[in-house]
């Protein structure tokens, strides 16, 4: 668009300049002057692709009619385009030759043409205003553009380096977390599995043997899940990929189809768990099923920690466009010492549910007990 405006401006200004110099244009008819101005404007419009036609048109128009706008525009483009000193010197020499040739033509024709081009003062003024200043302006514009381009490239390089440093720091932190989890958590869980196995072998009654076997099985499952997590932490992320959207080749995650096994584990530890399914069961997204499973899992874990042998109801409701999960436990019949916890289970669970556009509500019940209620779009 700007080159269209440039072409129109050069053409209009050229016609205005040459039409106002009756002695210079001699007796040329107006259509000829309009055609010459139009050619100059067209050459200025095409200067984005090649400015040499504009320089040629400007040289002919200046020598013939003292039409200076095309030559001025060509000098600016020469400053923005020519890179080597020899090229600039050649252009300046050619432009000075055009001014000299126009002076010769002025001497031959006489009149206003001679006054405009053949006098020393006017020739110097024309060379300075039409060639020197536009050429210097073009050189400044090109230098400014190169400085800006270099600044943008430097800023982009610094940004890429910053991203690389952040990725490196993230990878180091992930590796540190993986080491800590392996050295502390995995070691302690392994000891639990070993002691459970020893207890199972030395158990004096069948009930103790079943409890030890259950503890060992849960511990081995925890170690398997922990190894999966450590594998994710140890795996470097590819460039441009964030961890939240990365697909990691793991074994299938638990869904609602695995819920009964989870409830059986809680029952084996002495908790009376009752499952209620409401509505017509239907397939839902895998992420929804996994989240529903984690809601029940976290709620039962809290029952184990804080409520001991309290009876617990688990309800799965299939609504038209939602899946409701409700875990409600009563007051334990026998108080017991609470197990320590990090306190982040429900926080992480709420984040997991909200990522799917759902809501999680937790509250203590008036008659005792606790309620965990999740609504997940499905």
Strand order of the largest sheet: 1-2-3-5-4
The biggest beta sheet is recorded as: 5 strands, mixed
CATH superfamily membership of the domain at 256-378: Histidine kinase-like ATPase, C-terminal domain
Tell me what the CATH architecture of the domain at 256-378 is: 2-Layer Sandwich
Catalytic activity: ATP + protein L-histidine = ADP + protein N-phospho-L-histidine
EC number: 2.7.13.3
Keywords: ATP-binding, Kinase, Membrane, Nucleotide-binding, Phosphoprotein, Transferase, Transmembrane, Transmembrane helix, Two-component regulatory system
Protein name: histidine kinase
Describe this structure in words.
The chain crosses the membrane at residues 30-47, 59-82, 88-108, 120-141. Keywords: ATP-binding, Kinase, Membrane, Nucleotide-binding, Phosphoprotein, Transferase, Transmembrane, Transmembrane helix, Two-component regulatory system. This is histidine kinase. Its EC number is 2.7.13.3. It catalyses: ATP + protein L-histidine = ADP + protein N-phospho-L-histidine. Residues 239-250 have low confidence and may be disordered. The protein has a five-stranded mixed beta sheet with strand order 1-2-3-5-4. The radius of gyration is 43 Å and the shape is rod-shaped. Among the domains are: 2-118, no CATH class; 256-378, Histidine kinase-like ATPase, C-terminal domain (Heat Shock Protein 90, 2-Layer Sandwich), CATH 3.30.565.10. A hairpin with a 5-residue loop joins β4 (359-364) and β5 (370-377). α6 (85-109) packs antiparallel against α7 and α6 (85-109) packs antiparallel against α8 (120-202). The chain is of the alpha+beta class and 378 residues long. It starts with a helix and ends with a strand. The chain contains twelve helices and five strands.
């Amino acid at each position: 668009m700007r080159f269209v405006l440039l072409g129109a401006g050069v053409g209009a200004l050229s016609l205005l300049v040459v039409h106002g110099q009756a002695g210079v244009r001699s007796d040329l008819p107006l259509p000829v002057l309009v055609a010459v101005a139009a050619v100059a404007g067209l050459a200025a419009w095409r200067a984005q692709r090649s400015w040499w036609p504009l320089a040629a048109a400007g040289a002919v128009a200046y020598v013939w009619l003292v039409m200076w706008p095309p030559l001025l525009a060509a000098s600016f483009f020469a400053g923005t385009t020519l890179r080597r000193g020899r090229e600039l010197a050649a252009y300046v020499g050619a432009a000075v030759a055009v001014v000299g040739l126009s002076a010769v033509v002025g001497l031959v024709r006489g009149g206003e043409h001679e006054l405009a081009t053949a006098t020393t003062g006017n020739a110097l003024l024309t060379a300075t205003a039409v060639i020197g200043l536009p050429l210097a302006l073009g050189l400044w514009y090109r230098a400014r553009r190169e400085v800006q381009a270099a600044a943008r490239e430097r800023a982009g390089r610094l940004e890429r380096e910053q991203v690389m440093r952040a990725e490196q720091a993230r990878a180091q932190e992930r590796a540190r977390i993986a080491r800590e989890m392996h050295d502390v958590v995995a070691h302690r869980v392994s000891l639990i599995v070993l002691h459970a196995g020893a207890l199972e072998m030395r158990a004096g009654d069948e009930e103790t043997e079943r409890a030890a076997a259950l503890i060992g099985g849960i511990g081995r499952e925890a170690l398997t899940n922990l190894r999966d997590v450590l594998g994710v932490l140890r795996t470097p992320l590819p460039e441009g990929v964030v961890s939240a959207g990365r697909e990691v080749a793991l074994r299938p995650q638990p869904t609602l189809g695995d819920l009964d096994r989870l409830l059986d584990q809680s029952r084996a530890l002495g908790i009376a768990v009752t499952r209620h399914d409401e509505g017509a069961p239907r397939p839902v997204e895998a992420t929804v099923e996994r989240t529903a499973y984690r809601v029940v899992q976290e709620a039962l874990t809290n029952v184990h920690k804080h409520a001991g042998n309290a009876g617990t109801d688990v309800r799965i409701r299939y609504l038209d466009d939602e899946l409701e999960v409700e875990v409600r436990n009563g007051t334990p019949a026998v108080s017991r010492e609470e197990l320590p916890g990090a306190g982040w289970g429900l926080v992480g669970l709420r984040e997991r549910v909200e990522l799917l556009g759902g809501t999680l509500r937790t509250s203590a019940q008036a008659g005792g007990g606790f309620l965990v209620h999740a609504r997940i779009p499905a």
